[in-house]
Structure formats: structure tokens, C-alpha cells
Amino acid sequence: MLLFHGKRAPRTLLERWSQAHVDWIANLSWDNPALKRSMEALLQLYRHLDGQYKALTAEIEALAETEKYRERAALLTQIPGMGIYTAMSILIELQNVERFRKAEQLASYLGLTPSQRSSGESIRMGRITRCGNPRLRTRFVESSWTLIRYDPTVRATYERIKHQTGSAKKAIIAIARRLALRVRRVLLDQKVYHYGNGTLPEFAKDKSRAIRKLVLRRAQTA
Length: 222
Fold this sequence. Notes:
Elements: H1 19-26, H2 33-64, H3 70-76, H4 84-94, H5 103-110, E1 114-119, E2 122-128, H6 134-150, H7 152-165, H8 168-189, H9 202-221
Antiparallel strand pairs: 1-2
Helix pairs in contact: 3-4, 4-6, 5-8, 6-7, 6-8, 7-8
């Protein structure tokens, strides 16, 4: 609506939906009262949804600090690409990871298992089935894009698959499947994710320190 009517935010706002940006929109002048009312309605809807978003994210953060999830959430958030919301999505959706007795069962649950096409004695592996949990599958794929930036071994695997298949999409799906199986192992063994060189990069160290501080602060105020 703003662009259609030629309303462009000052460069100082950097096109970001900060509070200053919202205030700028609220104080815009409109020649037509109907346009002014329409914008007020849109802003009211935005503020309502923003308030709901903040309230729900606060509840997720509080849930992550409960005894049931605290340790496992801390383990998962040390993996590059997995913030507290992705970690909680995994933990809530999977619950007890031990119910997946084999790694392939988890891959199948996520829909990250290649489909098969048989013809006589030949078997061809096709695209992933997509029959599993779409919410978690999306989370693992999104996390994989960050993971390949920080884990050199995973990056090398991604590049190799990309070169072999000629497809970045197929390569990142393969990494997402590997990441899901690593997450299963982390939760089963209760051990920190290890990188190709066996050490934690600064990215993970910073996240680990931040999680510990958050947990300690909440414990002191409880």
C-alpha cells in the first residue's frame, strides 16, 4: 500500500520494521480519509500479530528453560544453524528420540528418505518421499544452510554431492538428512556436537556461553 501510493521511508530507517518505522507509518499524512483509515486498520492488525508473536516466543523460551528440556535444548543450540526455536521444535515434535530405534526410522519420519523405483532387477533411487513431518523437515533444511558455513567436513560433503548431482538442492537435502541423524546421536548420547576437526568454532562457543548464562540467570531469579 505504501509503495502503491508513493510513500517511501527515509533512508535512516533502512526499510526495517523497527518501532521507528512503525511510528513513521502511523504519522503519515493521507489526502483521502479512507486511505488513512485503511492504514490504521493495517497497523492495528500488525501490532496485534506482533504482540502475539512476542508472547508466544516468550513462552517457548520459558519452556526451554524447564527441567524437561533445558539440557537437551542446550545441546542442540550448540549446533550451527539451530537456535532455541528450532531446538524446541525438534524436541517437542520428536519427544523421546529413543522411539526411533534405527536412524533410518527417523529419516523416514522426516520424509528425508529417497524414494525407490523398481523395474525388473534394477532399483533406482529418486527424490525424497516428503511423506514425513514437513515442519521438522523444513527446519533441518534451513539449519543445514548455516551448518555448511561452519563445519568444514560437512561443507566438503555438500560440495561433493553438489558436484556429483549438479544440484545444490539435492546436496542440501542430503546434508539435512545427515544433520537429522547427528541430532539423534547427540540426544541419545547426551554429548556435544563435534565438528570435522573435533573442536568447537567461536560460533558454537559463543552460543554455548549465551545458553549457560540464560539458564543461570533464570535459575537465580526463580
